[in-house]
Amino acid sequence: MLTLPEAAAKPPEFGRDALIVCESLVRIYQTGSVEVQALQGLDLTVDAGEMIAVVGASGSGKSTLLSILAGIDAPTAGRARVDTWNLLDMSRKDRVHYRRHTVGFVRQQTASNLVPYLTAREMVDLPMTAAGAKPKLRRDRPGELLDALGVGDCADRKPGQLSGGQQMRVAIAVALANRPKVLFADEPTGELDTATSAEVFGALRDVNQQFGVTVVVVTHDAAVSGQVERTVAIRDGRTSSEVLRRTATNEDGDTHVIAEEYAVMDRAGRVQVPRDFREALNLTRRVRLALEPDHVTIRPDA
Ligand SMILES: Nc1ncnc2c1ncn2[C@@H]1O[C@H](COP(=O)(O)OP(=O)(O)OP(=O)(O)O)[C@@H](O)[C@H]1O
């Protein structure tokens, strides 16, 4: 057994250096007399430049989380910060500014991201005009962005003249028009076949690496979540576990990906012990904890 070190005077602020911080985030929807707790005290941090996937069963709260972070919906309680913005305390004007400059959003329904009577170039120009971008930037950036997303040759086509994958790439270009810090994508590959999904996902990864934009993707697609370094799982409106992936090289010089699952600990130190662990050792209401030099043990209450 170790002796416990003296507690620091004041613990550092949760997620102080992160770009996105959610702490005990709650969103309650009220329809008539029915109350749905879509988020029930969710904790999450995302660092600048990261690309993460958010996974979870239908109804677990993924879209609610994304709508809040994208400034489309407002949380009921808790803390949510993106960059310097406190999402619980924003005026209408702040919200417009936030959505125009700090974040970009791509929806699953490719068509709902686009305007049917505008060309790809005009669609990228639209948010730039709204943000008051300079004429030179408005002239150059749409073409550059469409080129970077591999749809430069589609600049003068309207959505009806584009494939599903091309529409999604154009939608990503539109979302990036005003150089947001974060790009949110809600099931971006949900309506696409496997090969096109891989291309669109590749495009998201490219913009993450080329432009340094932080990317948060909600997905059901294991082929997508298996390719990012961090996947956050949401269950019942809370983050339940995270999978971290890293590339390792063996003695023969071959590289392979190692994926490790972690439980998430909240600020108060609460950790959810997975059900199969609890059942295997009959861990029920009360457990014994002990601090060892480099780990903590949890034992059944004998
Ligand atoms: N506008 C709303 N009004 C009432 N309830 C809502 C509203 N939006 C979402 N909910 C409820 O909140 C819960 C979480 O929904 P949410 O859409 O965030 O889940 P999800 O994980 O994105 O699901 P899916 O994978 O099916 O899109 C669900 O029970 C849903 O029915």
TrEMBL record:
Please give the GO cellular component terms listed in this UniProt entry.
Answer: plasma membrane
Matching CDD domains: ABC_MJ0796_LolCDE_FtsE
UniProt keyword list: ATP-binding, DNA-binding, Nucleotide-binding, Transport
- The keyword Nucleotide-binding is assigned to this record: yes
Q: Enumerate the InterPro entries for this protein.
A: AAA+_ATPase, ABC_transporter-like_ATP-bd, ABC_transporter-like_CS, ABC_transpr_LolD-like, MacB-like_ATP-bd, P-loop_NTPase, SpoVT-AbrB_dom
Q: Which Pfam families match?
A: ABC_tran
Q: Which domain of life is it from?
A: Bacteria
Give GO MF terms, alphabetically. ATP binding; ATP hydrolysis activity; DNA binding; transmembrane transporter activity
Family matches, as SUPFAM superfamilies: P-loop containing nucleoside triphosphate hydrolases (SSF52540)
Q: Does the keyword Secreted apply?
A: no
Using the record's annotation, list all stretches that form the ABC transporter domain: 20-261
- The residues covered by the SpoVT-AbrB domain are 260-302
Protein name, entry field = ABC transporter ATP-binding protein
